[in-house]
Design brief:
- The protein has helices at residues 2-18, 26-50, 57-88, 101-111, 153-168; strands at 127-131, 136-140, 143-148.
- By secondary structure, it is mostly helical.
- The protein folds into three domains: 2-50; 57-111; 120-168.
- Strands 1-2-3 form a three-stranded antiparallel sheet, covered by helices on one side.
- A hairpin with a 4-residue loop joins strand 1 (127-131) and strand 2.
Length: 172
Amino acid sequence: MTIVDNAFREWIADFKATNPGVADSRAILDTAQYAFAAGRKAQREIDAARQPVGVDDATDRALGETIEQRDRCEEVADELADHIARITGVDIGEHSSANCPWQNAIDAAEEYKPAQAVDLGQLPDGWRLSKKATCYQLSHGNEIVGNLVGPDAEENAAIIARVLDSKAVGNG
């Protein structure tokens, strides 16, 4: 309404300034006022049409809760997909119209084959693999050869021990 009222005031001021001989003509001023009143009515109708359709408080609360639940489910799905990507080593990508990281994570989980457990009996004589708090420690006799970490630490330790043992006895 303020826009229409300001426009009316500006029009009247401009009209009086450019038409000093008829500036006080009641008929002209009444016609202008009528035209601007019609403008105000039209503006009210436009404003009313822009107002959202009312919903009751219970429906509004229920919709808000549903939106919050959806957002939380998406957060959990994102976290789960990230964890699966780290475990499987698969790049699941970002959400886009051409990529769904959730589906990529499902596919990666279905195809994932965990590393097989290594029988520690595969270590050559004299070699020992000890589980420590944060790693596996590979040693030969009283000498610590190295510390290994990661999901393949046991298997890698067995490989290292066999290679080193074969070099020590001149087999390699």
